[in-house]
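Schema walk-through. Below, the input block comes first and the output block second. Nothing else is stored per chain. Lengths vary across the set, and this one has 193 residues.
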Amino acid sequence: MVAFSFRGRGLSSTPASGYDLEDHLSDIEAVVNHCRLVNYIVLGFSRGAAYSLGWSLGHQDQLKGLILVDQPPLHSSMSPETVDFWSNLVYQQVPLLNYIRREALQGLGREAREVDFTDQLPQLKIPVTLFAGRNPEAKIPSDLSDEMLERYQALLPCCTVVKFPQSGHMIPDEAQQRYITEVEKCISERCIG
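--- output ---
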């Protein structure tokens, strides 16, 4: 298993520029090439799911599957108001800036262009698992409407939706054990079984 943090997150560097979709796809490419990955599954959570989807559309010959965690098929731009919201968000008593630096959020605000992948979804021939938070009372509600879930299933022939009724958007935190179990199940079914 390989896990990494995109630019401006975790222990990764925070360049002054390079925050559009193509820049993040180049981060994935660098990790895949460095680790010489083949027959792997890509998992992306939230905004990272948009990067994972973009990567998978161009590299499905290398993949065994894709796991998208609570994200519509959209790489979104960020308005100044959105940058401010995320910069000031405190979730479970921890500032979001503990996970992504303000400079990275500002870079996303300046550079991120909106890319809608909806029309490209039928091109995916690999198995896709979509985790969807369904708790409307969650502090950060799901980014997936019922209509979007139906659209995913209609456009992706190999789509499995896993609903998390106790979670909103933050599935890895709010339903941690079930999240781990479902990820392990996907890996077992696609890479081991």
